[in-house]
Specification:
The protein contains nine helices and no strands. It is mainly α. Helix 1 packs antiparallel against helix 6 (133-154) and helix 5 packs antiparallel against helix 6. The longest helix has 29 residues, at 19-47. The protein is flat and about 45 Å long.
């Protein structure tokens, strides 16, 4: 989501020659993470035989989406309705998953990884807006470099970097407590 946010405008300028598409992609970029996590949560609920709750939440938020999508609000109304209903659907599904599994909600790791992604996106935004493939690759490299550096410095590397990259960077292995949780 952070990389999609950072690359939104130059990527759509290259692909679609549209500044407005880049602005819209940037608006929807943070939702990519929510949509992905909602799909995972829905799948886990189905695997735990909680498909009735899943259908109930999806039906409720779809009906709410239809009620909120009034033509007089235009694109802004659609963005608001889409965001609100998908966040609500994810919150309801996550709450049900945590209830069924008895797992507590721990926000430290996701917030830390989110802060690292925000740092990477911010750093990539500092580069000039150039509409070329090399500029896009440079922006991607800056994003990942700052993301990895922030993850290493903040102690969230074990949550967001693959083991091969952690060993390449000579980062310590996961603690016994973290290994038991995973």
């Amino acid at each position: 989501a952070g990389l999609l946010f950072a690359l939104a405008e130059p990527l759509t300028a290259i692909l679609y020659q549209s500044e407005q598409a880049g602005q819209l992609l940037r608006v929807f970029a943070p939702l990519a993470l929510v949509l992905y996590m909602d799909a995972l949560t829905d799948g886990m609920l189905k695997g735990l035989s909680e498909q009735v709750a899943n259908v109930r939440y999806n039906t409720f938020t779809s009906a709410l989406d239809a009620m909120l999508l009034l033509p007089r609000w235009g694109l802004g109304g659609y963005i608001f309705a889409f965001t609100a209903t998908h966040l609500l659907n994810f919150a309801l599904s996550l709450r049900r998953l945590l209830t069924v599994t008895g797992c507590p909600l721990r926000l430290c790791a996701p917030l830390g990884v989110g802060a690292c992604a925000a740092a990477g996106a911010f750093a990539a935004q500092l580069l000039p807006e150039l509409e070329s493939i090399p500029a896009l690759l440079l922006r991607t490299a800056v994003f990942f470099s700052v993301f990895v550096l922030a993850a290493c410095l903040s102690g969230t590397a074990e949550h967001c970097l693959p083991p091969s990259l952690r060993s390449l960077l000579h980062l310590p292995e996961r603690s016994k407590k973290t290994q038991a949780v995973r």
